[in-house]
From TrEMBL:
It comes from Paraphoma chrysanthemicola. Belongs to the avfA family. It holds the Pfam family NAD_binding_10. Residues 9-232 form the NAD(P)-binding domain. InterPro entries: NAD(P)-bd_dom, NAD(P)-bd_dom_sf. It comes from the Eukaryota. This is NAD(P)-binding domain-containing protein.
Length: 278
């Protein structure tokens, strides 16, 4: 079945690897980029591919509300949305909050509240969580605390807020669809894909599941994991992914079949309270 995927942050490194992978499956892609100067690089990604590539020049920094995001979704009409945008440390805390939190949340809400959007995948990072899960060692917790509170505190707060909005609102939609007896295969899927430290290494195998902090994930492997997650029926929740030895598609299919969600042990009630305050 063909799909139309809106890739937000299309000029980013992961997205540029991801886009031809999506197109190669005869899926259509609209790549949302910040400036027209970025367009030629994106257009090359569609050459010789069976899927159709469209380029949308629209800066995520201009998206201030769910309504702004909804206008873009209504224009593009995707059935799947991938968030792979980020301030990348440019523009200070203000830009990080504006893009990694506010625009991300706007697109998350707009996607969840648009019935024709069936999947939303955001690229987060492995340490984006409040609590210490039981599968983390003391070293994992210390490393996460250092990154989240000392190295990248603004980024952490922004990504965590977006992850929590996705988790809470996606569950509300899923539960509502379940009450309406919509088949599970047709219910909304929300995925927070959570790589480790990103590298420019080649694509390879993965390890997925409930993982510790400190590992690395190549951007190419991340892109392949995104495709695998999108292809896997029923995949949802938080998926931690690091470089490893397993085939990405097989690993995520098994993870889904086993019902493994790295969001386990997070305080859902606290999440709801935090989301209500936004």
């Amino acid at each position: 079945m063909s799909h139309h995927i809106l890739v937000i942050g299309g000029h980013g490194k992961v997205a540029q690897i991801l886009t031809p992978l999506l197109l190669s499956r005869s899926w259509n892609v609209t790549s949302m980029i910040r400036t027209s100067e970025q367009a030629p690089a994106i257009e090359k990604l569609g050459q010789g591919q069976p899927g159709k590539l469209s380029v949308l020049v629209s800066s995520v920094s201009d998206v201030k509300s769910e309504g702004d995001a909804k206008k873009i979704i209504d224009q593009v009409k995707p059935d799947w949305v991938v968030w792979s945008a980020g301030a990348g440390g440019k523009g200070g805390a203000e830009a990080t909050y504006a893009i990694d939190r506010d625009a991300a949340i706007a697109f998350t809400k707009a996607s969840i509240h648009t019935q024709s959007v069936k999947k939303f995948l955001t690229v987060s990072y492995l340490a984006s969580r409040r609590g210490r899960p039981s599968w983390w060692t003391d070293e994992d917790w210390e490393a996460a605390q250092k990154v989240n509170n000392e190295v990248l505190p603004t980024y952490y707060k922004a990504k965590l807020a977006a992850d929590e909005v996705l988790t809470v609102l996606a569950k509300e939609r899923y539960d509502d669809e379940e009450k309406k007896s919509i088949p599970s295969s047709e219910r909304f899927s929300a995925i927070s894909l959570r790589p480790g430290t990103l590298t420019d290494g080649e694509a390879g195998g993965v390890q997925v599941g409930k993982l510790g902090v400190g590992g690395k994930t190549s951007r190419a492997t991340t892109a392949h994991a995104i495709v695998a997650a999108l292809e896997t029926e029923g995949a949802r929740g938080w998926i931690d992914v690091l470089d490893g030895n397993d085939d990405a598609k097989q690993a995520i299919q098994k993870l889904t079949a086993d019902g493994v969600d790295a969001a386990d042990e997070e305080d859902v009630d606290l999440m709801r309270e935090n989301v209500a305050k936004l």
